Structure formats: C-alpha cells, structure tokens
C-alpha cells in the first residue's frame, strides 16, 4: 500500500487500502484532497514530458528539412541496411477474416 504525502513530503498518515468505513468524513475528504494533489502533480509532469517530446520531434524535422534543402541524403547507410534486411525477411502469411464466423 502506498503512503500519501503532503507537499513537503511528510506522510499523511494513511494507506489507501485502509478500511474506508472506519474513516470520518473529514478523513475521507483529506484523503481525496491528497489524491487530487497527486493527480495534479502527475498531470503537470506528463504535460512537461509531452512538451519536451514535441520540441525534440520538431528539431529532428527541422534538421531533416535542412538536409533536404542542401541536397543531402536523409537516410543513413544503417537505415538502408535495416530496411533491406526487414524487407528481405519472409513475412508470416496474412490471415483472412472468416466472414461466416459469428461474433
């Protein structure tokens, strides 16, 4: 069970698996408040990470466009070798759906 902590990192003194029927309304409200705070922090971190991902992707696109403008190859030898190997490898047979099968 996970201990919940306040903004300063101190344990709030409960574990989520405790018997909720034994808690007062105020204790339940405090637990809920703590979980909402945790969710806001996670959501903020997720937005930061996605923003950083977007920035990195845009930088890669910018660099590829520059290479194209200069007439440089955008695929490296390793990419070509990997693609050749993948395409040369036999693929598994495609399964056709059974249209008579009941769902």
TrEMBL record:
InterPro entries linked: RsiG-like_dom (IPR055209)
Residue ranges annotated for the RsiG-like domain, each copy included: 18-79
Organism: Candidatus Hakubella thermalkaliphila
Record-given protein name: RsiG-like domain-containing protein
């Amino acid at each position: 069970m996970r201990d919940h902590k306040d903004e300063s990192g101190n344990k709030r003194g409960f574990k989520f698996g405790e018997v909720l029927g034994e808690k007062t309304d105020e204790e339940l409200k405090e637990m809920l408040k703590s979980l909402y705070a945790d969710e806001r922090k996670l959501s903020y971190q997720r937005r930061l990470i996605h923003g950083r991902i977007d920035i990195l992707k845009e930088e890669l696109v910018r660099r590829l466009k520059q290479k194209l403008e200069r007439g440089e190859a955008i695929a490296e030898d390793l990419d070509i070798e990997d693609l050749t190997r993948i395409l040369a490898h036999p693929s598994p047979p495609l399964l056709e759906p059974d249209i008579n099968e009941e769902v």
